[in-house]
Amino acid sequence: GENVEQHPSTLSVQEGDSAVIKCTYSDSASNYFPWYKQELGKRPQLIIDIRSNVGEKKDQRIAVTLNKTAKHFSLHITETQPEDSAVYFCAASVTGANSKLTFGKGITLSVRP
Amino acid sequence: DTEVTQTPKHLVMGMTNKKSLKCEQHMGHRAMYWYKQKAKKPPELMFVYSYEKLSINESVPSRFSPECPNSSLLNLHLHALQPEDSALYLCASSQDLGGTRYTFGSGTRLTVV
Which of A7, A25, A35, A101 should we substitute to test contact with B (largest number of B Cβ atoms within 10 Å)? Predict the structure, then answer.
């Protein structure tokens, strides 16, 4: 089955700086890669996703890049704000019937004011 | 309505009790999921329903019994749980059967005493 690794487990940045979170996956058949943000005590929320036919996707301060050859994908957050502090989970799946989303272990991002 | 609603928000139950968790969505999503999340861990898949039929059971113990009475409603029946089953139980739905763009509910915080 799919294995998603996420490093590091914690990341601290100064407000206004950029943050980059990296994930690797094992199943070359995986073709869908979402990122979820989970604030303390709240539900995971989809913040951006990318499919394997695209190398990069951007949404305001957030971008995701995908390297299929190396089997890794990254979340980029620019101009970080204290409200970006949360746990971020990457995930991967093969879309289609009986699709199963496999999550990475999560990274705790702290943005220092 | 763009939300997944879960009730109750909190539940404390004894090991001999029977209780049910409820999940409801009115977005017309035909794929629905139960996940279990322990503190500081990623969500773990338990069950997948596609078109109200159980399509994936991730070898979950029989003390957890899912039910999908209709396309908007998903239940999780609990019986004879163990203290280690204490966790946040998350319901999610997906707009397509390929398993993309999950919307998670806020979860039920379950404590087994």
Answer: A101
